[in-house]
User: Fold this.
Amino acid sequence: MQTLNTAKKQLETAVTSAIEKAIKNGELAQAEIPEYIIETPADRKNGDLATNVAMAGARAFKTAPIKIAQAITANIELSDTFFEKCEIAGPGFINFFYSGNFYASVLRDVEDEGENYGSSDFGEGKKINVEFVSANPTGPMHMGNARGGALGDCLAAVLKKAGYNSYREFYVNDAGNQIEKFACSLEARYLQIYKDDIEFPEDGYQGSDITDHARAYADEFGDKLVSVPVEERRKTLVEYALPKNISKMQSDMEKYKIFYDKWFFESTLHESGKVKAVVDLLTEKGLTYEKEGAIWYKNKQVCTDILLKEGKTQDYIDKLELKDDVLIRQNGNPTYFTADIAYHKDKFDRGFETCIDIWGADHHGHIMRMKGAMDAIGLDGDKLNIVLMQLVKLVSGGQVVKMSKRTGKAIQLGDLLDEVPVDSARFLFNTREANTQMDFDLDIAVQQDNQNPVYYVQYAHARICSIIKALQKDGIQARKCTDDELKLLTKSEEMELINHIATFSDEIVAAAKEYDPTKITRYVTQTATLFHKFYNASRVKVEDESLMQARLALCLAVKTVIKNVLDMFNIECPESM
Assistant:
C-alpha cells in the first residue's frame, strides 16, 4: 500500500514547503507551523485529499484562513507528486486532486504485492490474545456464540493482516459452580431412570442434553452408579459427559471454520495453584478481608481509586453503587471471578501485550472490576480490552424463529450450521457492529442471489474470472501494462474504483484499531458494488488494445482485493457461480 501513504507524505511535505516559502516571501507572518490534518473529503468531487491547515493556522499567522490558503496555493509545488492540482473551497479548505500517476501506481502496487496487498506492519508484531465464544461446556452453544465466533475469528484475522501476532483462545469453564450444578443435574436424570422418587434440583440444567447424557451412560453401563457414594457417582457422570460436550464444541467450531490456537481449561488454573496465588497476592497488597467465613476483594476501593484518577466526581462514583466481591466462599471454594483474575493474569504472564475478550452485553458490569483487578495485581488494566456483543435474533419471513426445523428444539449453533451455509453465517454475522442488536435473516442467508451479501461479493470475483476466461478463449492474455496505458483509465467509474482499492490497507488498520472486523465486510461489499458499476459502464474487450489491457489490469486488481478479504475471513472465493 505504498502509493496512498506516499501521496499523503508528499502532500504534507508540499504544504509545509509552501508555508515556509510564503513566510520567506512575507506573504505570511513568521510563526511556527501549526498541527493540521490531511483527510479524504466526504464527497470525492471536492477532491481526493484535503487539508484544514489554513483554518488551523489562523491564530498563529494572525490572518484569515482564506488568505492563508491563497498564500499556500500560490507557493505550492506539485510536480513530482501524485497530485495534478489543488483548489480552495469554503472558508479555506484546500482540496487536492490526484494525477494519472497515482492511479497507475495503485494498480502497480496490487500487481506487485498480490496476496500480501492490504497487509502492513502497523502492529509491529505485538502479541495479542483474542478470547472469544468461551461457552459454558455444560450445554450446547447458542446464537450468541455463533455471532461471537464469527466476530472473534475475523477480528483475529484482521489483526494479523495489520501486522499483529494474533492468537485465538477458547476458555473452557470446566471447574467451579457450573460443573457442580452439571454433576447434580446429570445425577438426578440418571437416578430418575431407576427410581421414581428422585426430585430434580431446583437450579439444575433443564436441557434435554442432560437427559440424553444420562440415558446414554445408562445404556452403556447400566445401573452400576445407583448404589455408589454420591461424590463418586457425580464425578463419574461428569467425566463421561463433559468430554463429549467439549468435543462437540470443538467440532462445531471447526465446522464453523474456526481453529483455535489454544483451548484453555479453567481446571488447570486450580490444579497449578494459580487461583490460590492470586488470592494470596491480593491479600499481600492489603486488598482482601474476611467476613462471614468468606474472603472478600476490595473491589469498591480499587475501582473508586481508578475513577478518581480519571477525574470522576464522588457523586458519579456513588451512583455506580460499587460493591466488593467474594473471592473464596464460606465452603472454601473460589468464585468464578477469582478464577477469571487468575486466567487473565496467566494470559499476560504468557507474554501477550494486549488481551481482547468478546463478551455478551450482559457482562457490561464485569468490565470495570476485571480491569481494576488487573491494576490491583500489578498489571495494566488498560491492556485488557472488552468487545461487548449485543443479542442476535433469528428471523424468517419477517418473524422471529426460536425452534430448529430439523430438531424442533431451541436453535443451537450446530443446528444453524446445518441449515445455513457456513460462509453465509460467517459473513452475515460480520455485517453489523458488535455493539448493535442484530436480526439474522435465515431466508437471506440461504439465498444464492445478490440479496445475500456474501454471494454478492463472491459473484463479483466469479464474474472477473469469467471475463478472464472469455478473453483467453479469444486468445487474449493479460500482460503487464505501461504506466501510460494505465493512465488511460480516466472514466469516473474507473477512478472511483481505484481510489477505493487504494484505501484497503488503511481500512484494515482502522478495523484493527477499533476491533471492528465489520468494517472490512462493508469495504469488500463496496468493492463489489463499485466493480459492478464499472463493469456496467465500460466494456473490457474493446478495439483499443492498450485500453483493454488497462481495464483487464483493473479487473485483476479488484479480483486480488476480493480474494484477499475472503481468504482472510476463511470464506470460499469461487471462480464460477
Observations:
- The CA atoms of residues 300 and 323 lie 5 Å apart.
- The chain has a mean pLDDT of 94.
- The chain is about 50% helix and 10% strand.
- Residues 230-255 form the longest helix (26 residues).
